[in-house]
Design a protein that fits this description.
This protein has 16 helices and 27 strands. Helix 14 (about 415) links the parallel strand 19 (about 405-410) and strand 20. Helix 3 runs parallel beside helix 5 and helix 11 packs parallel to helix 13 (about 385-400). It is of the alpha/beta class. The chain is elongated and about 80 Å long. The strands form 6 sheets. The protein has a 9-stranded mixed beta sheet with strand order 1-2-3-7-8-9-10-11-12. Strands 13-14-15-18-19-20-21-22-25 form a 9-stranded mixed beta sheet. Strands 4-6-5 form a 3-stranded antiparallel beta sheet.
Length: about 575
């Protein structure tokens, strides 16, 4: 659910705020209001024009002479004027707006008017742009600079309209905001965002036909529309989605927590008496997960955040990004921890999958490069900084999504990263006498779940304050012997059933092809009130999904994603 408070009406934006996971507001909103919205659980996206001069903004008058140096042709909207996208001064002036968004506490930005190349009144008045093809190249360069600037400041960034550039730039933007793609029969051009699990926020300024919301569902857009004149609304928005209450982060149960391991080591185990259940993100069955959630278990989902694996079920979704990340070290294939933009692409999909499954936390594996000599040598002196930057990104994602965050078998990383973590899963820390590596978590009453692949003395585990289980197996291979089960160094407890964030099944959707049916935008028989359309869970509004067809839209490190499972 999203609310649009920045534009859409004469004089600005008007929309519902309560129950909106994402709010689009104008950059000139007071900082206190933006931070207040964030404190209420909203993800705040701040709007400004990056391609035209806006004389009403507070930063115009103090630098009016500089702004006027980069103005070119007139734009047919509110006496605005296009800016020279090739002039370095334009970037200097606009960079201050990106910084202002970060300083005010915005989670992301919506820079408007990024299509000078498609308007001869703009590119035709810029010296040095002799053709539209030259203007297109200059526009792509200018737009990529915007995405890089936003990401350096920790902001997500929306691609506003400019459909002809999507194929060139979809990898760089985090989500899309579109006006009138149904009216112009262009929604099919937005599908590359959907294919990368990135949200498409969409508005129409007319009532249109009765199947408007069904079309939006087929085209994977999160639509709101109004009775308007084609450019602005004359009546309140009608939403093709439902607003819902904000879900708070589910705390891990009392420390130390009892737990069941269904993810690692090959041994089977029952979940009765376990407050926490650890499952593999790709092996977990939706119906089983629904049972765990209904029974009141806290669900932690394990997946690799550091290994390159062509056999991973999600490899083909982003194969180009995965291949760019591959690093060979000592017979293992790692991801390049310094390539944060590429990592963001591939891990966005995994976090989105975790939310869809109904997970309450992420257990990220294979971040133990510091404990592997070949890996450390391959990445050099910057490996520690790269790992912490990467983990910081995961922490931002988890925080925005109200998920717990933990790492698996990364003892050298934990002491300096404990503040970012809610838990850890240790491996053989009793056997190797290194449970002390997790003391920063333990002293903060954060649970450390320990897997041991050889028999141990449970009293030693209890003295180390780790919640341990062991099997008879092979430590080096991290596997239990065939037929072995887990022995717990703790007693089961009564788990109380409680309301969960378990998934709500959504209608099966179409294949995403553009609709060829006529869209009668002059039809006065449009819907009124809130339209029953696809229920979208966004950022903190994790409704989940038990069915196999569903949408989920959310923000990660500012990256808004939409996925169908």
């Amino acid at each position: 659910p999203w609310g649009l408070l920045a534009w859409g009406f004469d004089g600005g934006g008007r929309d519902q705020k309560d129950g909106a996971g994402v709010l689009v507001v104008d950059l000139d909103r007071p900082e206190s209001e933006i931070r207040g919205m964030a404190a209420e659980g909203h993800t705040v996206i701040c709007y400004f024009s990056v391609g035209t001069i806006e004389e009403f903004r507070s930063d115009y008058l103090p630098k009016r002479a500089e702004w006027n140096k980069v103005t070119v042709g007139d734009i047919d909207w509110e006496d605005e004027t296009w800016l020279d996208i090739t002039n370095p001064l334009t970037r200097t002036l606009q960079e201050a707006r990106f910084q202002l968004a970060a300083d005010k506490g915005c989670h992301g930005v919506e820079p408007d008017n990024i299509d000078c190349f498609d308007n001869e009144d703009c590119w035709g008045t810029i010296k040095g742009l002799s053709s539209q093809s030259a203007a297109r190249a200059a526009q792509i360069d200018f737009n990529r600079w915007q995405t890089e600037t936003a990401h350096k400041l920790g902001l997500s960034i929306a691609m506003k309209n400019s459909l002809d550039l999507i194929e060139d730039l979809v990898d760089h933007y985090d989500f899309a905001i579109n006006e009138l793609c149904q009216y112009y029969r262009e929604c099919g051009q937005l599908q590359p965002f959907f294919k990368q699990n990135k949200a498409i926020l969409h508005v129409e300024y007319s009532l249109g036909s009765e199947d408007r919301c069904a079309r939006a569902e087929r085209e994977h857009t999160t639509l709101k529309y109004c009775d308007g004149d084609g450019k602005i609304c004359n009546a309140p928005w009608i939403n093709c989605f439902s607003f819902s209450a904000i879900l708070q982060k589910r705390p891990l149960d009392s420390y130390p927590a009892t737990w069941a391991n269904l993810a690692l080591g090959s041994a089977s185990e029952k979940t009765e008496g376990a407050q926490v259940v650890l499952v593999d993100l790709f092996d977990a069955v939706a119906e089983d997960v629904a049972d765990y959630l209904e029974d009141g278990h806290t669900l932690l989902c394990a997946f690799s955040g550091g290994q390159f694996d062509v056999d991973s079920p999600d490899f083909d979704e982003n194969s180009a990004a995965w291949n760019a990340l591959k690093v060979d070290a000592g017979g293992q294939q790692w991801v390049n921890f310094s390539m944060i933009d590429q990592l963001r692409i591939v891990m966005t999909s995994r976090v989105s999958r975790a939310l869809t499954l109904g997970c309450h936390g992420l257990a990220v594996k294979d971040l133990n490069c510091l404990d592997d000599e070949a890996c450390t040598q391959a990445f050099g002196a910057n490996v520690n900084a790269s790992l912490h930057s990467y983990l910081n990104w995961f922490a931002t994602v988890a925080s925005d999504s109200k998920l717990n965050l933990g790492v698996y078998d990364s003892p050298s990383l934990v002491p300096t990263a404990a503040a970012l973590l809610d838990f850890a899963v240790a491996k053989d820390c009793v056997h190797f006498d290194n449970c002390f590596a997790y003391n920063e978590l333990i002293t903060s009453d954060k649970p450390v779940f320990d897997l041991e692949f050889t028999a141990i003395d449970c009293d030693v585990a209890r003295a180390a304050n780790v919640t341990a289980k062991f099997c008879t197996g092979v430590v080096e291979d991290t596997v239990c012997n065939e037929g072995q089960g887990w022995t717990n160094c703790f007693s089961p407890v009564q788990v109380t059933q409680r309301p969960t964030s378990s998934p709500t099944a959504l209608p099966q959707t179409g294949d995403g092809d553009d609709d060829d049916d006529d869209d009668d935008d002059d039809d006065d028989d449009g819907n009124s009130g809130t339209v029953a359309g696809v229920v979208v869970a966004i950022a903190l509004f994790i409704l989940g999904a038990t069915g196999f067809y569903m949408y989920r839209t959310r923000l990660e490190e500012g990256v808004l994603t939409t996925s169908r499972e």
